[in-house]
């Protein structure tokens, strides 16, 4: 069995990581962690005074992935860590799940409301609706 843990650099809770680790240990499964550094296709953040706008999130994503990896290693699980760049985290997660032939995607749920949900949608919802495999959403 292969588990894909989708990390959210803005809020991967320990609970999500622990759930993926529990399943990986119980099933003697391979664990792959994916973190997507969202790039902004429509605008360069340099237009508003931020140098290297397209790369701005990469350090945050790398730090989040390293933290999750260290937690896994402390629990006796050595994960494969994949960091991707893209305009759409859900697309990155789905593509990785297919490429890695994941049997299960484990991810958290960050509640968006109102206009944010209408305009941006939910990464979790898009993954659940389009994944080729089962998806466990941890709240």
Description:
By secondary structure, the chain is an alpha/beta fold. It has one domain (2-138): Rossmann fold (3-Layer(aba) Sandwich), CATH 3.40.50. The chain is built from 5 helices and 5 strands. The chain has helices at residues 14-27, 58-74, 89-99, 114-120, 123-130; strands spanning 2-7, 30-38, 80-86, 104-108, 134-138. The protein has a 5-stranded parallel β-sheet with strand order 3-2-1-4-5, sandwiched between helices. Helix 3 packs parallel to helix 5.
Total helices: the number is: 5
Tally of domains: 1
Category by helix and strand content: alpha/beta
End-to-end span in angstroms? 23 Å
Shape: globular
Order of secondary-structure elements: EHEHEHEHHE
CATH topology: Rossmann fold
What is the CATH homologous superfamily assignment? Answer: HUPs
Poorly predicted regions are 42-49
* Rg over CA atoms: 15 Å
CATH class assignment: Alpha Beta
Total beta strand runs: 5
The overall average pLDDT, rounded, is 85
Helix content: 40-55%
Q: What's the CATH architecture name?
A: 3-Layer(aba) Sandwich
Give structural attributes.
single chain; 139 residues; Rossmann fold; globular; 5 strands; 23% strand; alpha/beta; 5-stranded parallel sheet; 41% helix
Which helices and strands appear, and what pairs or packs with what?
Blueprint: E1 2-7, H1 14-27, E2 30-38, H2 58-74, E3 80-86, H3 89-99, E4 104-108, H4 114-120, H5 123-130, E5 134-138
Parallel strand pairs: 1-2, 1-4, 2-3, 4-5
Helix pairs in contact: 3-5
């Amino acid at each position: 069995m292969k588990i894909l843990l989708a990390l959210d650099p803005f809020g991967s809770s320990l609970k999500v990581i622990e759930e993926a680790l529990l399943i990986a240990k119980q099933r003697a499964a391979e664990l792959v962690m994916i973190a997507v550094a969202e790039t902004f296709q429509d605008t360069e953040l340099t237009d508003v005074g931020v140098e290297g706008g397209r790369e701005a999130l990469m350090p945050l994503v790398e730090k989040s992935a390293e933290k999750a990896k260290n937690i896994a290693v402390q629990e006796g699980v050595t994960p494969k860590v994949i960091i991707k760049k893209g305009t759409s985290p859900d697309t990155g997660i789905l593509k990785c799940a297919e490429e890695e032939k994941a049997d299960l995607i484990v991810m958290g749920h960050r509640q968006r409301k109102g206009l944010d949900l209408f305009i941006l949608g939910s990464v979790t919802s898009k993954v659940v609706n389009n994944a080729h495999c089962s998806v466990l959403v941890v709240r």
